[in-house]
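Dear colleague,

Following up on yesterday's call, I've attached the two folding results inline so they're easy to grep. Please treat them as preliminary; we haven't cross-checked anything against experimental data yet. The first protein's sequence and structure tokens come first.
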Amino acid sequence: MFADLSVTMSQVEFFGVALSWAISSGIYAFRYRSKSAYYTATKMGTESNWYETSDKIRLYGGLALGCLLATTQLLAIFGIVTSQLNGLIWMLVGGLGGMILHLAVGVMRFLGMEAAVKNSQGTVTLTDFTAKGVQAGATIVAIKGDTMEDAVMDAASMIALAGAAEGWYFGMWNDATDEEQQEWIEEWEETVATRAEEIAADKGPAAKAEEGEQGEEAKEGEEGEEGEDAEEGEEGEEAEEGDEDK
């Protein structure tokens, strides 16, 4: 009962993380940054507006990935989709897809920063310098602000997912067949045995010498105990002989 409850609550937490990602991306894309003039301040002359491109990819990509993960996770909660299939989707879409999305956004943000710096350095007159400086500053502030926001949201999501990971993976284990579970156990046992051999090999001669010293100390301790027992036995016999003489 408690295991099933743990699995369900873990899946609900995964669903909440995915849904939060989708809602956050959607509300920014269609509400807060939907006006066409929003990205005007970050346009660098004839250069491409890399900040606008990166932001739209981030928002629409996050909306798509978040909706897909939330949908499959919700289906898994109600048993329509198996936990194993849901886990595969999370690994491919959330893991690999999210990594590619973040990489693409990061590259475009870097290009936007470079364009801002290049545009501000190529000025001649004071008026031109002031105008381009304002544009460059707005671009840099916007990129850094979004980068910080992404970092905070990613950290919060990772903490939430890590706390629910045990129950979530337990659900995948429960949905597996007996043959699959046995295969996983054998793989784990093989991994443990291999790592144990590697650790033993890494110890080297120093560890063997230390084990030899410990063995010698143990032998000396045993010999000392035997000697003490023998002395006590002799003293006891002498005492008994003295009593008999009396």
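Below is the second protein, in the same order (sequence, then structure):
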Amino acid sequence: MNTESGRFKKTGRKMKWVRTCVAAIVAMSVCSNVIAQQVCLDQGWDEQGTQRELFYNLTQGSQLLPYDFFLAVEDVNSMKLLRSDRSLKRWGYLPADKYYDKTLNPDRLPIGFVKDIDAVDGSEHVGFTCAACHTGQINYQGKEIRIEGGQSLSDFVGFVNNLKLSFEATKNKRPKFRRFVKRLNIERTQENMDELVIELDEVIASLDRILSATETVGNSGIGRLDAFGSIGNTILEHDLGKPNNFAAPKAPVSIPFLWQTSELERTQYTGIHCCPTV
């Protein structure tokens, strides 16, 4: 009887511990599903929010990769789409507003990710605007406080590297490739598949060039980037076809805020660019 009683006591303690764990898991699940209140600061935008949406969604000519590829590709180690809020939050990019403009952003891209239509051939690409790196957010007591023109905590190099790995996995893993083809709604002919593989190779090579132009000596990390060095490499080395112009980026700095930029005589950290509006 004592043995049985002791066993029941142990079982009771065990059941109490299990109930505690279950309660904690439920509590965490509930907390994770709480919809935070979004707060937009008074930063001089128009009352309708049109200017804010244009800051988020107006293309500036950036063409990272084909638009439909970005919408269809899965994350490297998952069946989830890479463009999902959950995936991109890992790299510090913010999801679209709860009341985002469906006309300017019909596919609900994250803040600062936009569709760019090439003026020459009409091809569609996904690219960045200034808002991707210059929109910050503070999460405090259930509130998401957005700060436009501020500093994001994004990891651009980590994101591009993950993007490259995701396309490599799409090309090399049959299940991922099949799902990718299905999302693109491409007829599965041999000619189409061969052409798609060539396009994937081009995207992977392009992302590799971005990484080689951007990766610093030492990891730049979250919220830091040698943007000036990487842009210089892209233009002076890659675009001009001058390999000797390459200079390894080695000065990652915190992403600066944009306030009062138009009032400065010179912009960029190096001060080499005269501001025409002054």
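For the second protein, one point worth flagging: The CA atoms of residues 97 and 189 lie 40 Å apart.

Best wishes,
A.L.
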